[in-house]
Amino acid sequence: MYNHICESDNHYIELTKLVKKDIPKTVMRALEEDLGGEININNDITVNILPKNSKAYAQIITNEEGIFCGTDWVKEIFKQLHQSVNLTWHVEERQKIKPKQLLIEIEGSSRAIITSERTILNFIQTLSGVATKVSHYVSLINNTNTKLLDTRKTLPGLRTALKHAVICGGGNSHRVGLSDAFLIKENHIIAIGSIQKAIESARSMLPDNTIEVEVESIAELIQAINAGADIIMLDNFDFEKTKQAIKINNKRVPLELSGNINDCLISKLAQIGIDYISIGDFTKNICSLDMSMRLKIK
């Protein structure tokens, strides 16, 4: 059966392929936003006050502790600018970083370095911010079997990039898109009539795909178990209700908890045996990591 959660090797491989495929498109859009709709360094009117062949040296440092993420996006930026620039890396993807740490040295065209500054920082600050937040939550559930998942609550156009950042932080990817697996939610159930009918219809369409069902009550949980759901999402269950659900389920079906999760509650939930906790906050409410670039003329 297809597993839409990135614990399976197949799902991880497919996500990695999607990330690599999306990086050029994502970088292209970001550069076009800055350069008048086309990737032409001459469209940066301010940088054109500099001599065309002037060279520069720059350093990117972090001003905060965190987890670094975004290596391939930086490389792609200079690839698309068609500029000869040398990058010296002092950090690896997923590496823990400390304040004032040197991350990247850049040497080459002063125009290219200055034009690309904001695009570079936008990517690595955003992705490192996500990885850092996820890493914090993962640290709270160490020594438990609970896995942390992201959601589809992502910034438009950055889904695969943000999911990559979640994995860099030690989390796991939920389904990437609507075609990955069935996730039967409240409105689907209202439209078709019942949890039983929804699962039967999904199973008849694609019998090998995972069917996850979102439930909002203990009664719906029991219906989903009896109807043969592969995974059940407990939507906005409080702590006591989650304990009750785990007891009733008795390990028959993997349980995922979603909604109203905070860092005070998450360790308690992991300790009572919830299988998965999905957190939209990872990729929806992003706190970018503070980084900066400093230039020296050569």
TrEMBL record:
Gene Ontology CC terms, in alphabetical order: cytoplasm
GO molecular function, one term: nicotinate-nucleotide diphosphorylase (carboxylating) activity
Keyword flag Lyase: no
Similarity section: Belongs to the NadC/ModD family.
Domain Quinolinate phosphoribosyl transferase C-terminal: 130-294
Highest taxon of the lineage: Bacteria
Function: Involved in the catabolism of quinolinic acid (QA).
Domain Quinolinate phosphoribosyl transferase N-terminal positions: 44-128
One matching Pfam family: QRPTase_N
Protein EC: 2.4.2.19
Assigned keywords, A-Z: Glycosyltransferase, Pyridine nucleotide biosynthesis, Transferase
Pathway the protein takes part in: Cofactor biosynthesis; NAD(+) biosynthesis; nicotinate D-ribonucleotide from quinolinate: step 1/1
Protein name: nicotinate-nucleotide diphosphorylase (carboxylating)
GO biological process, one term: quinolinate catabolic process
InterPro entries per UniProt: Aldolase_TIM (IPR013785), NadC (IPR004393), NadC/ModD (IPR027277), Nicotinate_pribotase-like_C (IPR036068), Quinolinate_PRibosylTase_N_sf (IPR037128), Quinolinate_PRibosylTrfase_C (IPR002638), Quinolinate_PRibosylTrfase_N (IPR022412)
Keyword Glycosyltransferase listed: yes
Top enzyme category: transferase
